[in-house]
Amino acid sequence: MSSELVLTEVVGPVAVITLNRPDKRNALSAELVVDLGEVIEAFDAEDGIRAMVLTGADPAFSAGFDLRNLGTELAETAAKRWEGETRRLGMLPNHSTPIVGAINGPAVTGGLELALGCDFLIASERARFADTHGRVGVMPGGGMTIRLPALIGIDRARRMSLTGDFVDAATALAWGLVTEVTTHDALLERSVEVAATIAGLDPMVVTELREMYDQIGNLTGHEAWRVENQWSKTWIQDRFDQDRLSDKADAIIKRGSSQS
Predict the structure, then answer these.
(1) Rounded CA gap, 20 and 1, in Å?
(2) Residue 178: strand, helix, or coil
(3) pLDDT value at position 87?
(4) Which of 88, 91, 168, 245 could link 114 by a cystine bridge, Cβ 3.0 to 4.6 Å?
(5) Cα gap 260→255, rounded to integer Å
């Protein structure tokens, strides 16, 4: 599934996907975005792949769209985003397999939007984050104004977008942009480890949980509570497997005790 611009490796049930334009700091071109989408769709369709890890070839995760051809790249990417049966609500195609973002270096503007398309992020100590749409003079089109404030709050998101200033890994962790910071050398191994934990769960349950977060996350107040409650009742009535839970109860308790 690899291409010149997107490298892949399979580690058990986990697919590792690497943006591969290191000489351009993994700047996004229309071709790279298309290749990445095709790789994600292919892995998403494989029963043996239960989780993915998305990272960049050092020294950056992604510096955003290639500024030399910015207008063309943005237009081509936007057009591709709405082509065919699989439409994108962000920089990534729709998918049911979780994607852990392993942020190995700077994630800037379109690169940050790409990272925000992952389920959650683990960062290297070298990771840095910035939204420079204002500095470049273009408007976000990959979910920046939707996903970023949901993670770090509207005021911090505005600050990042209106100043274009960089946020380091420690600040990103404190703000909730990333869930964990590791040493640079340990990043990929740790990200695969977390992805493997996800891969060990029932894929049907994981898919349902992701769908719940996607749909309920857009709701607020009593409506969010109502929908979650109804979803839970429907799952228990139609799809919950009590016998399976009983079989795994001891393992669940044991794992919880070991992490306490």
Answers:
(1) 14
(2) coil
(3) 46
(4) 91
(5) 9
Q: Could you give the domains of the chain?
A: 6-199 (3.90.226.10), 219-258 (no CATH)
- Residue 247 is predicted with a pLDDT of 56
Write down the pTM of the prediction.
0.85
Q: Which of 92, 227, 242, 101 is nearest to 169 (CA)?
A: 101
| Spans of the chain below 70 pLDDT | 67-89, 239-260
d(CA 151, CA 47): 31
User: What gap in Å lies between CA 24 and CA 229, rounded to an integer?
Assistant: 48
Answer for the pair 114, 103: CB distance below 8 angstroms, yes or no. Answer: no
pLDDT the model gives residue 80: 55
Contacts of 100 (CB under 8 A, 6+ apart): 51, 52, 53, 54, 118, 119, 120, 121, 122, 191, 194, 195, 198
Residue 42: how many CB atoms within 10 A of its CB? 13
Identify whether 93 is preceded by a cis peptide bond (ω within 30 of 0): no
Contact 6, 34 (CB under 8 A): no
Q: Beta strands 14-19 and 6-11: pairing type?
A: antiparallel
Cα→Cα distances 11→48, 182, 183, 193, 240, Å: 11, 20, 21, 10, 30
| Average pLDDT of every residue of the chain | 87
Rg of the chain over Cα atoms, rounded to whole angstroms, equals 19
